[in-house]
Amino acid sequence: MPWLLGLIEGDGTFSFNGVVPRLAIQLNFRQEYVLKAVQAFFGGVGNLRIEAPRSHVTSEGSYLSASMVILEFNQIAFLRNVIVTAFKGLSLLTKKGLDFADWSICVELYFTGRHTLQPGNDLILLLKSRMNNNRLSTNPTNQRDLVIEQSQIDTVFNLPAPYEVRKGARYLAGTNKLVSEPFPVYVKGLDGSLRLYPSLSQCADALGSSRAPVKKYLDSGTPYKGFFFTSTPPGS
After folding, report:
1. Is the pLDDT of residue 57 over 80?
2. Is 107 helix (H, G, I), strand (E, B) or coil?
3. Which range marks the domain in which residue 211 is found?
4. How far is CA 130 from CA 93, 120, 146, 152, 186, in A?
5. I need a labelling partner for 149 at 20 to 30 A (CA). Which of 47, 94, 158, 182 fits?
């Protein structure tokens, strides 16, 4: 996905809503068609919105910025299984490479439920504190030199995970209680065709099936009606 990597290098942000990881791409509203194409490529995953013009005041006067269009991804399974998986084999050339490294740790912490543990929550906040504008040398309060030892990270990941994954879905560890959230489903045909659906339900609807067989054959390696179903990109 080098084309998406380039778009994010220029106009994307690995950020958060509180401690919830998100990925946002922001363009001039006239380029809405670009983000609609990105969203369509991912089977409709993501939230697309228009941001109204904003008033800015500088030493030279005030001005009104143009309207912006924003595509935001905050579905944690999508971020982990699709975005992080795809980008780990690529290289970000700007400081966003450092942001991605920190952000991907936070994605894994959140996906496994360790954000619900105080040490996990604290680690996300610590990593977040040195990302994006906090990494800029022009920011007088920047934290770009903040060192977080690998041992600190390992200590948190060595804690028992509150969530466990079974066939793409997350459950509270040791129970049959689902962590309520949709997750993307890849559908690969015997002819090599590949489709991505935002959720199990939408996948089943598109195939004219119920959720049960899709869930049964998900990540099983066995085809159903000529299709393989996986919760991560095939071959990843």
Report:
1. no
2. helix
3. 185-230
4. 18, 16, 7, 15, 34
5. 94
